[in-house]
Amino acid sequence: MKIMIEYFPYLVKALPMTFYILFTSVFLALILALFLTWAKVGKNKIAKAFASVYISFMRGTPIIAQLLIVFIAVPLIMKDLGIRTNNWNNSVYAITAFALNEAAFFAEIFRSAYIALDKGQIEAGQSLGMSGIQVFLRIILPQAGANALPNTTNMTIELMKNTSLGMAIGVYDIMGKATQLALNNYGVGQRELFFEVSIMFWMIGLGFMFLTNRLVDYLNRGTSEHIGKNNRLFKRLQVKGGRV
Amino acid sequence: MSFDFHYAITCIEPILKKLPVTMKLTLWSMAIALLGGILFALMKKSNNKILANVCRLTSSFLKGVPILVFLYFFYYSMDDILHALGGTFRFEYDLRNPPKIQMAIVALSISYIPYMSDMLLSALDTIPKGQFEACYAMGFTKLQMMIRIIIPQLIVVCIPNIGNHFVNLLKATSLAYMVTIVEMMGAAKNFAVKNQRFLETYIMAAFVYWVIFIMFEQLFQLIERHSGKYLKR
């Protein structure tokens, strides 16, 4: 217990690194995933085939292999382009790998959310003379976004857990810091240390879950499910067999 | 950047040689996780509220922690505990040669237990209540009801999810190389270090994983189509 309190400040100092990797890669992955989804549901056959192979590869290979490939390939490519990578932080490679990996999963989620939409609405929008961007922003995004949000945050929590792999390429996030601390102390108190790390990951995950539940409730306000969940009168009517 | 194809082809053999270790890790963890998942699902469904809540808390915890943390926890910090237990229960524990693979199996399986129990519970919800009542009305015992009516349907509902978790677990076993277990990824790393060519080796390792992933995906789809036959008449 004493060791845990002693180590805690060091681990908290590593928290910003975890969040930095997480948010940057999620942001990049969201952008990439939009393109992938567009390729996957669109009519361009070449783009569709490329997106399918990409998604299958990213889903079918371990994330650690992707991380190592990016870690080795990116400096070589940059060398060919004449860019020096000697003083880049290792977190750059971690972010690249996680973003590339996560984009595939996000694209799958977005595609299923898009398919769940009522196609008549898009046609209605087009018949009203909306441009493609208007249809996307006003009709597709509000509904598909609300549909996709729970799954997207689940994937984000998964990614948060996966950021711990960054230590394989020398990124000092929580897990990397913990192993460093363990090595510094010749392995004294490792059990407490890793237990503490697991508690921290759990708490971050729970925080994310709490925030998303709030957000999903907010986005789904006005739909009948949501009203049913929060309204006592509605529940009583339902129990009595009445339809509202 | 240069990619040496001849070298890349020579990588495949040492990687594939360690496929049995990967499969051993996957299958054992899958089996233990399924057993634990059944246990957790039963406890969550039980009438004992304390037990059910403890189970819920535990599975939330197990879901929130990366597999890597569990692997490190079991690999680096169980030494003295196991040594002491070996003293009391009279089994031989060799400190210099710890049972690495067994520890990895425990770490992988406990992190998949909550997913398994969730899967089973959601599958149980898909079975209509009327069937349970019909079983009571027919005078089935609980065991008979489970074995003859519920479980055959449960398996069919679960198969797609089990396939998903299985391939995820297969990918997750690659993490075991971080705790010095030589499975496919570990073999790739050793081979790369020996020849000082990292890019080709890791890409080939990824391709090997990809091929295995696709094979298992197809296999599970086949099983799914076969087992769901009675549903579409």
TrEMBL record, chain A:
GO terms for biological process, alphabetical: amino acid transport
Membrane topology: Multi-pass membrane protein
Protein's cellular compartments: Cell membrane
Keywords for this protein: Amino-acid transport, Cell membrane, Membrane, Transmembrane, Transmembrane helix, Transport
PANTHER family named among the record's database cross-references: L-CYSTINE TRANSPORT SYSTEM PERMEASE PROTEIN TCYL (PTHR30614:SF0), MEMBRANE COMPONENT OF AMINO ACID ABC TRANSPORTER (PTHR30614)
Protein family (similarity comment): Belongs to the binding-protein-dependent transport system permease family.
Protein name from the UniProt record: Amino acid ABC transporter membrane protein 1, PAAT family (TC 3.A.1.3.-)
Species in which this protein is naturally found: Anaeromicropila populeti
Taxonomic lineage from the root: Bacteria, Bacillati, Bacillota, Clostridia, Lachnospirales
Automatic annotation (TrEMBL), chain B:
GO cellular component: a single term: ATP-binding cassette (ABC) transporter complex
Membrane topology designation: Multi-pass membrane protein
Pfam families xref list: BPD_transp_1
UniProt entry keywords in alphabetical sequence: Amino-acid transport, Cell membrane, Membrane, Transmembrane, Transmembrane helix, Transport
Start and end residues of each ABC transmembrane type-1 domain: 19-220
Family matches, as CDD domains: TM_PBP2
Residue stretches spanning the membrane: 25-42, 54-75, 101-124, 145-163, 202-223
GO-annotated molecular function: transmembrane transporter activity
Compartments in which it is found: Cell membrane
InterPro entries, alphabetized: AA_ABC_transptr_permease_3TM (IPR010065), ArtM/GltK/GlnP/TcyL/YhdX-like (IPR043429), MetI-like (IPR000515), MetI-like_sf (IPR035906)
GO-annotated biological processes: amino acid transport
PANTHER family for the chain: L-CYSTINE TRANSPORT SYSTEM PERMEASE PROTEIN TCYL (PTHR30614:SF0), MEMBRANE COMPONENT OF AMINO ACID ABC TRANSPORTER (PTHR30614)
Family: Belongs to the binding-protein-dependent transport system permease family.
Protein name from the UniProt record: Amino acid ABC transporter membrane protein, PAAT family (TC 3.A.1.3.-)
